[in-house]
Amino acid sequence: MIPSHEWIVGGDFNAVANLSEHSGRISPLQSDMDDLNDCLENCGLINPRLIGNLFTWSGNRSRGRVQRRLDRAVVNGTLMNNYDDITVTHLSSTTSDHKPILLQCLQNQSYGPKPFRFQNMWMNHNNFLQVISDFWKSRSYLGGIHGLDSKLKGLKAVLKEWNLKSFGNIQEKIQDAERLATSAQECFEADQSDFNRANYNKAKAELIMAIDNEFNFWKQKANLKWIEEGDSNTKFFHAYVKGRRTKSMIRVIEDSNGKPITNIEVIKKMAIEHFFNQFNNRKSVSMSPILAYINPTITEEDNNLLTMIPSDEEIKNTVWSLSPDSAPGPDGYNGHFFKFCWEIIHKDVISATREFFLGVPVRISYGSTFISLIPKINDPKNFCDYRPISLSTFMSKINTKILATRLQKILHKVVSVEQTGFQTLKGVKEQILLIEEMVHRIDNNTRSGNLVIKLDMAKAFDNMEWEYISNMLRQMGFSAFVTTLLLANLEASQLSILINGSPCGFFKMMRGVKQGDPLSPLLFILASEGLSRMLKKTMESGYISPFNTGRNILISHLAFADDIIIFSKGDGC
């Protein structure tokens, strides 16, 4: 197959790629699956995004009905790159036992303006730090949150203009550099003068730089944590980005009546309405019965630890501890920018961080957050099938990371041993072993039998009420000022939904904790402590009969974040 040409290969392959493409008692041969996958890989063929039912063939066999995906349409990378989205739909069959396949190649289209994003390749330019330094010196020093915010906003316009002049279109730059390098090589081969030698070396260096810029551009977009330094397969990164973008592309959403909506503007309005309701539908409930199980254990010393003004070293260490490759928030600046430009911007960053710990209100620009929608299933139908991940500004994550690191030191005072999620020196391995032992003892001789219940809390992070979190923190002994600091970034949050890379909407968040923020998991387990204490107390009081372990040991439940398993006797529910 010629890689530069567009290829579509379709038909009955008479084999499945993996066990998920098979349903029935007779399993497919591993050798057949390996042969198919090796063939697709060697030919550079990719399975496009599947819409609808997985199986294409069904039949009755002596050991029951069998369903398999025997038919498929696959494409190569060249075709994938030339279209915005390629989908495969398995249509209804009529007389045949094989389903027809509909392959759709959808042309590129605009979904709206894309936000500014700092490009890591800029750091390779020998003039980059000078551009940052000149701009930073040209702005009067205001200090604090307002000063840093003003500079970061103004810097965007400067970087956009500088990018056009210094980098322009990456692909065109490579093509131009290749032509110049070829021409310089020909001149040097014809006349090996010092001038032609220098010109040839310069042209080669510019070509290498152009290729390196392309590599860094696609590597940043791919954002693969497991890629080793030195890996330089630009085609791989490009294909990975294309595949991930295709998988997360939203082209159709069902409305409340199950009607498919394809108009992108209507889809954006539906997204805004759905997530506005999700993060603003506050519920007022009585908290006294739950809070009654909480005794204050946080001391004045603990509160002082959390409110202490951070030192220069603590702030710098926090910046370096945050992932520089995490997707940026609405301001567009990632951790690479803050680390690479630290000597220029550190005074402003330190001043802004200290203002936060003095209680200065968080600015709207700091609290602004993108909501990235990650599909929970292969073929999402509506917005309930997407997981909302928060993309906060890097500056806001510096503040919450400092609080989270300090909070880790005192969590053991308030969090029950039954909870193990997101805590230093606490892992899930011990819980897994304990659960296995409890399940092994489920048939212990006991009246009414033993019972194991797995709780599935829908949208647990998104439904957490701030009033409840605040009251829980105060009941545990956290001071009013500490409680304000812990909730400050949440209460300043303004959300925009990313639909195919373009933000839409701008509304205030009124409940929930942000998935993707360093502090949110700890706030969640602190709030969940109410449920843990309540379960434990109700069993200790005999209101719920405890699980019979065969020993005088009470194990009421185990919790890892929003996953909870309850153990009791069969007559305890």
From TrEMBL:
Question: Where is the Reverse transcriptase domain positioned along the sequence?
Answer: 355-573
Matches recorded under CDD domains: RT_nLTR_like
Q: Which domain of life is it from?
A: Eukaryota
Listed InterPro entries: DNA/RNA_pol_sf (IPR043502), Endo/exonu/phosph_ase_sf (IPR036691), RT_dom (IPR000477)
PROSITE patterns linked: RT_POL
Q: What is this protein called?
A: Reverse transcriptase domain-containing protein
Specify the species.
Cuscuta campestris
